[in-house]
Amino acid sequence: MSQPIRTYTRIQNQDQTQYPPERVSVNPARFEDEVGLYPITPLAGVKQACEAARQAFPSWRKVPAPLRGNLIYNLGQLVSANKTVLASWLTREVGKPYSEALGSVQEVIDTCQFFVSEGRRLYGQTVPSEMADKRLFTYRRPVGVCGIITAGNFPIAVPAWYVVPALLCGNTVVWKPSEDAPVLSYLFCQLVEKAGFPPGVFNMVLGDGATTGAALVSMVSAGLVDKIGFTGSTAVGQRIGRVAGENLQVPCLELGGKNPLVVTERANLELAVEGALWSAFGTAGQRCTSLGVLIVQERIYEEFIARLLERTAAMVIGDPTDPSITYGPLISKRFLDNLLAFQKNQIQAHHQVLTPTIGQITRENPWPNFVGDPAAGYFAHPVLVGGARREDVLYQEETFGPLVAAVSYGELEEALDWANGHGYGLSSAIYTQDPAEAFYFQENIQAGMVSINNTTSGAEAHMPFGGNGRSGNGSRQSGVWVLDQFTRWQGVNWDFSNQLQRAQIDTIYSPGDLDYRVPGW
Fold this sequence. Notes:
Layout: E1 5-6, E2 10-11, E3 14-15, E4 23-26, E5 34-38, H1 43-62, H2 65-81, H3 83-94, H4 98-118, E6 125-127, E7 134-142, E8 145-149, H5 157-168, E9 172-176, H6 182-194, E10 202-204, H7 209-221, E11 227-231, H8 234-246, E12 252-254, E13 259-263, H9 269-281, E14 291-297, H10 301-313, E15 317-318, H11 333-346, E16 352-353, E17 370-371, E18 383-386, H12 393-396, E19 403-409, H13 412-420, E20 424-425, E21 427-431, H14 435-444, E22 449-452, E23 468-469, H15 483-486, E24 487-495
Parallel strand pairs: 1-5, 8-9, 8-11, 9-10, 11-12, 13-14, 13-21, 14-19, 15-17, 18-19, 21-22
Antiparallel strand pairs: 2-3, 4-5, 6-7, 7-24, 16-18, 20-23
Helix pairs in contact: 1-7, 2-4, 2-6, 3-4, 3-6, 4-5, 7-8, 9-10
């Protein structure tokens, strides 16, 4: 194996060597492969990064938006030129299958391509005034310094959803990436700098959530961060939301999900099985949009589950560099430990474990179709559990791993009750060939995203992404909708009448003949 890459916090385009590496980033599929070394940036370092971003903001916001868009173009070209290398690092550092890693890097490229032209479309409006000799205008203005905290399951795609529009809109950024992908984050940071962004506009602070992430959130109260963007767990998002609310800020929160997938009697069952399999076990269930609750019409429940279990048993699991696998390891030991604890504590006596076994894949607890050495990584069995009840934690809480609860329903209203009952509202799906069922579902589901005859997972750069309820605060990423997260509307009232004109008070309305009555028959 190659020597681990030494990474550093980067502030104003410079490595911050006063924070020596303290931890090792390990390949989750091969323990002996030490990918990189990274520091835990303390409060002082985070404050320095925020101060650098604050100092860079006045000049950066004055750069014309089309020219900021040109730098986004440069970034997209650089990521495209390094696509396969970045994908290889992504597979090595977080265990994402290589084909998925390529798709994740492509998402960055797509995001850059979309927002290049938005630099020429940061439109305001001209608004008619009720007064003569007055003009009204609206403008988008940047928010200021944006603190961005992202997770390890999509270690550069999701950061791009925040960073690209934030920079395009004239904000400066302090980014705290996941400690599960410090090398990939460091390489991405270098590409941002090579794209031509001035010093201080984009800063990266490496570290864990408890130290570095908490320090960045504290900068809101310190007056050094004007906007927090966070992708991660609902519990942490709630804490960040409280800090933002106390400072009269609106955070951008993309949180967890317990995403439902409904299968009706009128579904194409083979397609629904394929969709459920990917929704449940793609990326080892480590997507915020992964399937959480499978909801199948009771008259087809047994047949559907049998088909799904057959397809599950045929899955290949293991080495993420092998093109035949469905999923590889969990991202890190922390995620595996959390999953195993959840299984131990929340699979109850009234549940039916429908798959052959649970727990970690080992030589003693093998998966038949395994590629590689299970003892070398953090691999987990796919698990499907029947018999969930409304009061079960298995139903109520996000799992974040290859573990799915399955239930049956009678009428579609009951399916929607299951789909909405846990309070999450990120992604959802229904499989049906009946348009009436599809329309009913999309109108009554409380999720921010709905798929019809498609999986719960999947995003495109020009579509809004985000959730409601326990899945977020209604903020949206991607597409033009994210511009509202990184700009504030400014209204301008320009009066050139050379006299005081007061709207509603001095406005001359035509009285009309309001006493006129239409003759009756």
